[in-house]
Prior knowledge:
The structure holds two protein chains of two kinds. Chain A has helices at residues 3-9, 11-20, 64-68, 134-143, 153-161, 223-242, 248-270, 278-283, 300-319, 346-370, 437-447, and strands at residues 44-50, 97-100, 105-108, 121-128, 171-174, 200-201, 324-329, 377-383, 386-387, 399-400, 404-410, 416-417, 435-436, 457-459, 462-464.
Amino acid sequence: MQRRNFLAGGLAGLALAELLGRDTAAAELQGVVSTPHHRPRAKRVVQLFMAGAASPIDTFDHKPLLSRRHGEPWDPGESVELFQSKPGACFGSPWKFRPYGESGKQLSEIVAPLGEVVDDIAFVHNVVGKTGVHSQGTLLQTTGFQLPGFPSGGSWVGYALGCETENLPAFVVLPDHRGLASNGAKNWGNAFLPAEHQGTVIRPGDDEPIADLHPPASDFVTPASEREGLRLLQALNRRHAQSRPGDDRLLARVRSYELAAAMQIEATDALNVSSEPSYIQAMYGLAPEGPGVDDREINAKAESEFFGRKCLVARRLLERGVRYVQVWSGNDNGHPRRNWDSHEDVKRDHGPLAIGMARGAAALIRDLRQRGMLDDTLIVWTTEFGRMPCSQGSKGRDHNPFAFTNWFCGGGVRGGTYGESDEWGYKPLDRDRPTTGYDVHATMLHLLGIDHTRLSVRHNGIDRRLTDVHGHVIREMLS
Amino acid sequence: MVFPRIASNEPIRRLPAVCPLWRWAIVALWGLVPSNADAVDFETDVAPILQSRCLGCHGPAGEGGVRLDRFDDAAETLVPGDPGASRLIEQVSGREPAMPLDGDPLSGAEVETLRAWVAAGASWPQDRLLEDGPASDLDWWSLRPIAAVEPPRPGHPIDAFLDARLEDAGLDPFGPADPATLYRRLCYDLTGLPPDPERAATFSALELESVVDEMLASEAFGEKWGRRWLDLARYAETHGYDKDKPREHAWPYRDYVIAALNDDKPYDRFVQEQIAGDALFPGDPDGVVALGFLAAGPWDFIGHVEVGEAKVDGRIAKHLDRDEMISAVFNVFASTTVQCAQCHHHKFDPVSMEDYYRLHAVFAAVDRADRPIGPGRGSDEGTGSDEGAGVGKRDERAKETVGGTGRTVFAVATEFEPQGKFVATGGDPRPIRRLNRGDIRSPGDPMSPGMPPLWPGADAEFVLSPDADEANARAALALSLTRPENPLLWRSIVNRLWHWTFGRPIVETPNDFGRMGAKPSHPRLLDYLAARLRDDPRHSLKSIVRLLVTSEAYRRGSGHDAAAAEIDSGNVNLWRFNRRRMTAEEFRDSLLAISGLLRVEDRGGPSFRDFVIEKPKHSPHYEYHLHDPDDPACHRRSIYRFVVRSQPQPLLTALDCPDPSLSVPGRDESTTAVQALAQWNNRFVESMSRHFGERIGRHVGDPKDRAADPVGFACETALGRPPDERERELLEAYLREHGAANLARVVFNMNRFVYID
């Protein structure tokens, strides 16, 4: 039985009548912040997460001194405690940098595709973490806390603002198809927020991109049993609800099956990347072979296909009203390495990963702009920490939680550089004025019209916020 | 003015050392400025602001070289008579004030008070040293002694309390539920399983007490209520964090919880065992297995094994690990949020930072690790004593199934095989210091074991003999917490029992009875129950549950009454029973039971895994979609499921099975499209529909044969009652057209099935 057949007659058939009878545009699901705290500049967010810790000094944060001192002993003038190793020699980036855009921002050749949009990007090179441990660092960026048990930023945003569509979840996660990053689903968990605010996982290119979207292979489910079974179910459940007045949950459950039907249509449509013109597919770096592209050895073509496809799906989800999309590049720390944790060989892993990321991200920025959506869509690029200016072994870099890069683009953001690292890329240039993950979250919420100090939920005696008790909006960055 | 100005964006803590000459000048100036006592009073207006908002960092800790607790130091930030030139004022005012660094800005009124005080000369009584004491005292409902309360009228004590309130509110209680509804409710609430159709058909409210006793005595009771306890205990069988490795020996704690509830272990003993069973009950295997509670939460493998405590990151991991343990103990057993005192004194409850770090000292020697259960019942040593035979049986079973892993439990330990940089303490507590602002890099005074004095007469510091070992500190904590004088222990647990019986608690925040939590809706009833449990020599939880479910309030219908809803739409007064949805586990267990597949006698031992592990060596991938739902090894009750942190089970998660990294007092009930998709399309539901369909199919026969009633069988089996006429008509038509398996799939998605009236 082909799955497609169900679309004609299954949940979808059930819902069509309902859908036609309603003004879907008016059916916005409200969040708790029904009146913005101030004028919002962005309506939706894409978080691009580089799992494993992406190196700023090989991508966006040019450090010529490292190349000049390459191979010489590295002495930052203080004792350095590394995660895995003892500090090695100065390690100049294996890639060339050159200026791009009117600003002349220096970018490495492995992120060259972003050169075209570099003037729209706001770089922050002095982000500091609290730890060099992947799991804690990742949680800090996704949930604002170092330990599990706190809601993801996407959950907070969905909770605050609701969704612009009923037919798709407010918060969608596109994980790396090769495995989940550190902490797995904790990075998009709702924790103590209501369960509907957990991120919904979609795996573009997978045989079953959304769990349970369609009936499983079955020797008894047929299109007719599907269609009539749902009709019967809805009739029985409506009767049940009518005989039990005063309980909204019962009709809500009837309605949830109609929304499920709408989701089958809408999600299937959103994932139908083949309907995009070929020049768009090419812009995002999709491979002719599709998701089956050969990646037995890590290579730029495959990485472009993987990340580009997720970026393109992200755009299609945002167009359809999804509030927050989290896109992952890189999996867990299994081997062979398919993430940014380049202890062994920066060149081998960062090269393909960065080119794939830059192609997809640049395409996303250009595509949103040409559709008039960049003005109210915020892109936040992040990772759990950075990498050291010195070598580990001879070709790798150890963790650097003392200074790393985040960047913003789109809704309400002015391009430029806000926060520099020191000449090594080791610590913030002004050590007393670093940028924290809290500041990044505060700024994101600010752009969405939310005062981060006023979005809180009481849990176990504490009014919890995404920004804990910290966070300052990076005001210089606001356009 | 002589005082140096400093750029406004520079934080106060980097104030340069003031030249002694200037300091002299200010002190000299002080005396010259007339004080204006009418405007602002130091003691009543200014000191409380400094104490509550500044001294957490700028007290004796002197963060950034600034102290605001004594005159000489505070003077460095003040220019008497000139607020505009005073660093203190500048730091706390403006649109985004630099201070407090870790908290909400001061209110406008607070800033104005400080400003007026400085303008009036910033008078500071001579030698007045401010102390950063917790703002709060014991004058709060949950900290007062449990009141001696008698029910306000004769009859069932629960109804006596509730009815008096209903009358006061002008509410008429709803009539009793019909027997089939009541029976189904009892089955799910007490055993978590669907009703036996034959018993449901004949059940009468007159036999309520004997049926309740039967259910309380069944093993299914512990399996249902154990699941609730494991939610609280944040129990899972992987470490979480990075790599998320499996915990092969976590399950003995799960079996301990089930057995303890089934055996109706006295509540104080149940608590004592979970904190210090090894020290308090040496030789009793339960005393070791119960320590699985402390270890049940997430554990940072990388932070402990690969980084280690020689590095700052490793010490942070260890600190967070203890914090998680301490929080669990106090949130679960005392409904107190001690974790709020990590960076400053608790802002609302009587928990100081010292109290909090004393708790760190209690747990300073233990780590989460595999630990031998020790000689005991039913083991190779075969001591075979009668008491605790339950554990013995489970041990035997474990030996048969997995070659004796039942001899080990994942618990807290001071001896274990070193693993990378993770090395046992051997019982020597790590030195614990008060951490200023909770920062590992800013240690303060050394701390010795103790706990917050949460009731009058409680000791903050434990008196331990000089040769005491680390377990003595945990034993002191366990004994302290379980004292009859601790009002929190008893109130906390009876509130949970009420919550799990009536669907909503008396105190809406079961893990927080502090000033940030809710107040009880029925305080006298709560105290009556708390005292009853405390004064019961057996401290029997079952006896409280029995009391609750034999009340009229429990037997009420869950229907609608417009007049009552007008007065009390939230049903705070329990004028009707609260309808609830099945939990995720009840849904799964019901499908298995109704399909005839549930291996109900297959109890205890290693957990079943409804996933396939790929890439087990480094970071295991837990792949649920690769697992065959027809695999009989998984046709066990959901409490025996292997619970993974990083990759939660998709179907159960869609049905509100919560994050096992949190202590969860009660389940959410969300209703989403994703949930509808899961219930309709999940492979497990499809599989169970096929099996239930086969059972239904056996009842299909000659339509003239009255005994051949497949729809009647389906409804009685799944819903605990026969179909009504219309249901029968619709379901029979569908059955004829699409067969029994499709019928089963519809039934499993019916509101009548998933809601319990």
